[in-house]
Amino acid sequence: MEFIDNTFSVENAEDSSGFLLWQVTSLWQRKIRDSLKQYDLTHSQYVLLTCLHWLKLHGQEVTQIVLSSNSKIDPMTTSTVLRTLQKKGLIQRKEDLTDTRAKKIDITEQGKEIIKKAVVTVETADKEFFALLGDTANQFNETLVALIKQ
């Protein structure tokens, strides 16, 4: 009697949405990482600095928890990355007057200067990477948003 190993539910790796997403994410992150080298930013630093700048432009008070929630980066990693951004002089952290456990985050002028340039670079890299989507880009983004919201 022949033993059949049925570890996987798919015949081909291309039939696994999770594995495909992993591969695409890895390729995309590599492209973004390469584009951010000139600014001495990691991808996580870029994401948190961008979220901070975006939220501040929209008049929001920003704390570490708000940034963590907005970026989907876990709170411990957010805290670690923010310490690094503070050491680089790109953000300031201050204790909240009403909640001493919370830290209010603000972007420095140097941080604004860098992030404005980095956003242009990353948006260009995104357009190049996702160009293959063509007219289906909006549908792709809607699907990603649905996955995030579930």
Please tell me about this protein's structure:
The chain is mostly helical. Helices cover 60% and strands 7% of the residues. The chain has helices spanning 17-36, 43-57, 64-71, 75-87, 109-129, 137-149, and strands at 91-95, 103-107. A two-stranded antiparallel ribbon has the order 1-2. Helix 1 (17-36) crosses helix 5 (109-129), helix 2 packs across helix 5 and helix 3 crosses helix 4. The radius of gyration is 19 Å and the shape is globular. The model has no long low-confidence stretch (mean pLDDT 93).
Alpha carbon gyration radius: 19 Å
> Number of helical segments?
6
Helix and strand content put the structural class at mainly alpha
Order of secondary-structure elements: HHHHEEHH
Largest sheet: 2 strands, antiparallel
- The poorly predicted ranges are none
